[in-house]
Amino acid sequence: MKNLKFKFPLFRTSISSQSPSFIIFLLFITFVFATYYCLITLWNYTQISDFKNYYEESILFLETGKMSPQFLFFQAPGHPFLISKIFNIFDSINPAIIQFLNICQYLTAIILTHFSFKTQFSWIKYVGTFSLSICVSYLSLMGFLAAEFNFLFFFVIGNFLLIRYLQNENTFGILPRTLLILAIAFTFGLAQFVRPLSFYYLLFFGFGLFYLKVISKKTLIHSSKATLMQYGLVFSLFLFVAMNLYRNISGKWAYQPPQNGIWSIYVGFNAKAKGSYNAEDITQFKKIAEPLHWNGEALRAILKPITIERVKANWQANIRQSLQRAIRLLVPYFTSYWFFAKGIPPSKNPIWILWMKAVFLLSTFTVLISYLSNGIYLFKLFRKKHLNTIETFAFCSLISTFLYILIHVFCLEIQPRYAAHLVFINLWILPLSLENFIQPNPKFQ
């Protein structure tokens, strides 16, 4: 085991004599991979909705080197751009290639979370790993050309490196801390290029760090020299990377699609639809957009005032509907709609459906437990006078995700798959909060 620790410095803080057998972990991961592969190959998925748009845009970019103005107005270009590169490498436009890539990216994300920090009790770590392996928010989307997987891949790598930076560790044995800052900014920038969520995550993460360092003046990060100035450097470099990536595709400096979230707010304040996607919204908007050839600046100028009017008219309704909206967003079982309604089972035997429903219900239970457990854990971290490194990361990350949940529930378009990364972060941190219940004042770091 000591040799393993030497050969893989990336994981050296997690693989020790206190950890469960690494061979058992490899067997578990192999079983999970086989399960994912069977799930995709046995089930027949039809690419529809946004997933179909991703596929069509990737083919368009592969053929012309450009994307349609309509797509760029609403969506980040990173996912179809990456799909086109994969298709180019394999000289094929078979969706099965991307489906297999979804498996590999999700499995990599799970492995990185498992080795991102230590716990006193090995079984607690496996609670989080097992919960992620059956996570309905991702299992139900794995067969589609889903941007969630490309986003998650870079998002998890960014957080994994961020933890290493906070721990003041020389992650790769030869990587200076300056290059580690660049790696963090670059991976979060790629995640933003795929789905415009990293900006808000890092911004709210900074709020948490500012509270700890300036407002509460807690004793933080005993072994690290990380500062707010260094956080500012990471955030600035992240924005520079994201804007450069957008510029290479769209020709304009931007950190997210031209509508800048206005469309999500416009849909989110549709009181009749309770913030869910409504076909009437897009139908009416197309009548405006098509004569303008989807010019981003012109459309944003039109969309902004009618969004403000809708907000003024419906903000009270949004408050009244907030509980329903929160349930619709945060209960991951609703994501299974994509699996059951848009996927065809390998046989008409009802056992297949019942088995998957049981898995999804179990996943939903673990996610709801994670919200409750992590909420209590966050409250305890507020009260603690001294935080160690991983507690600092957990505090800032949970502050970021919970703030985003509040804003999303009240203001933005409600679709359960939009909360997939929130689900993942909560399951990632779940072992820490569970350990806190078992050992409220751990001396172990």
TrEMBL record:
The chain's coiled-coil residues are none
Record's keyword terms, sorted: Membrane, Transmembrane, Transmembrane helix
TM ranges are: 21-45, 96-117, 174-193, 199-216, 228-246, 352-372, 393-412
Q: What is this protein called?
A: Glycosyltransferase RgtA/B/C/D-like domain-containing protein
